Amino acid sequence: MNWLARSRPSGTATAAAPTKPNSAVSSDASSAKSRTSNGLKEFLWLMSDVSHARVLDLGPVWQATVNFFLEKGYRISTDDLLGTWKEFVAAEEDRLRAAPVTEDGFTARLSAAALADKFLETALKYTEESFHGVLAWDLMDYFEAPVSARIMNRLYDILHPGGAVLALFHSRAPERFYRYRIVDTQTVELVPASALAAHARVFQNREILDLFQKFRSSKTFVGRDQVREGLFLK
Amino acid sequence: MWRKPTNAKPSSQAPSTPERSTEIPVAPKAVATPEAPKPGAISEPKLAVSPVPAAPPVPAVPPTPAYTPTPAVPVRAEPVTKVVTHDTASPSSIGMGLKIRGELSGSSDLYIEGEAQGKIVLINSRVTVGARGRVQADIEAREIVIEGSVQGNLKAHENIRLASSSNVQGSVLTPRIGIDDGAKLRGKVEMTRAGGSNAGGSNTVQSSSNANKSTNTANVKAVATTAKGE
Fold it and tell me: Which residue on chain B is closest to A126 by alpha carbon?
């Protein structure tokens, strides 16, 4: 898979922009909105080279997304990383509350980095190079820097050489928390949900490149809704 | 001027049933008990039925308003009603508070509200893990419905449904799958041919469906398979 050597998929260049809710799709969440995603289109174009590509969706499981990939003959795995993180942090808080107070009056609270290491002892435990594509959506915005760096390292490891990560970055703190599901090859639906975590930070472009520094190349699409879509190739 | 016929008053029935209050507590139990000892029953039916000595053929024909009090219905009959009432097909059931460890096989449908560990193989049956059910086992069945929590791989020969309250950690192998919004799945989804198996786990599926995003209908239908290595 080498996008530098391939011609672009036709009609990619239109700017990503939020569109009106698709009535056929947003039957359950009236406030759901859909947006055009050139990043997704390019991601799928990269996957199309691989027969039976394996895709990891780091969002919640949706019937629509599962069907979308299965119909293409892909294998889809889902792992709601932010949900798992929330459960992990809650368990850690419980552990801290139950832990005895030390002599100096403090409990042993882990640093963000140590917390991330502990989290990754059980999360994202996949065989190395086992996925051709990872849909990270806007998760990185919700992790602190040491955590997102470690997660990205793990994602790099489980990604097949030539595989791609699709990640979204808000240019300002989002008004509310959304989960993403795929409608078609170029459209994702943003489903409002109760926030699993507070928005941690807004990435600068340089920080994004640093986060994905191990990756071979990157491509960014900027939408009118101030969301940057990044496609990173291993 | 229109007048209600006097005997149509709702209150007119009340005085005619002095025995009504005695009829309520026992009559439903008499209906619920009869078919409990089913041959394919797996766990609780056996446990529950054994203490009730041949559940005395309670005059289970309740239509007669005159109720004859049955002294044998008392306290022990309670668990039996728990088992039978869930479904008209009277599946075997692992009720709340019950834990089972080991391999479970047979031909009866199974409903789990308790805890199960090990392996569940009911190839021609339906396995339902209720909202309070907690399973740490691989499940293989004709049809699997998950409303509770499962740690293990699911393999169905017809379809799998993950309800909105479900929480599954493991792979899902099935010809059709229905996923409600809110369901939690940590693992992979693979399709097989309907009724067939996918021993290598390497079949590719072209599926045809008009998936409704937020409903629980079975959506993906396997049409063709081609085996290729991972």
Answer: B187
